[in-house]
Backbone:
């Protein structure tokens, strides 16, 4: 193989890798839904990306530069279970609500950027909702309130 053929082969490989990266990026897009939470000031709506597959849950909000107030990510699990989250490769300070299958908020905890220690639910939960840190308080949402939208 001459140097011209090697160059063409290398260029073709680079193009293939770029197309694969674009394809994988498109596949990792999350569906967005409007969720309604019932808090102390009444109903609050949030736009949430839905993470319901193992791959989506593993990716979560990693490698993001920002997350506006009123937006978040809802992690959905098949069954209630003790949940554990960490902030690997996540530079945005977040708050997380662990939510029972009936929509009741069990815990709200803050998470520090890039902290790889586990943040655990105190009881089995089916959902976890991550939002910008402090959003739950600003929106009037606290432990015992409800995620009204629970049928997905």
Residues:
């Amino acid at each position: 193989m001459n140097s011209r053929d090697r160059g063409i082969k290398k260029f073709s490989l680079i193009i293939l890798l770029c197309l694969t990266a674009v394809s994988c990026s498109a596949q990792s897009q999350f569906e967005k839904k409007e969720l309604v939470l019932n808090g102390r000031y009444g109903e609050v709506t949030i736009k949430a990306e839905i993470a319901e597959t193992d791959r989506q849950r593993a990716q979560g909000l990693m490698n993001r530069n920002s997350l506006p107030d009123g937006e978040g990510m809802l992690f959905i699990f098949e069954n209630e279970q003790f949940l554990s989250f960490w902030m690997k490769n996540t530079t945005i300070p977040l708050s997380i609500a662990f939510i029972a299958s009936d929509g009741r908020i069990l815990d709200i905890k803050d998470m520090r950027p890039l902290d790889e220690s586990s943040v655990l639910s105190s009881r089995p939960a089916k959902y976890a909702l991550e939002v910008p840190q402090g959003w739950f308080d600003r929106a009037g949402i606290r432990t015992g309130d409800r995620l009204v939208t629970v049928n997905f």
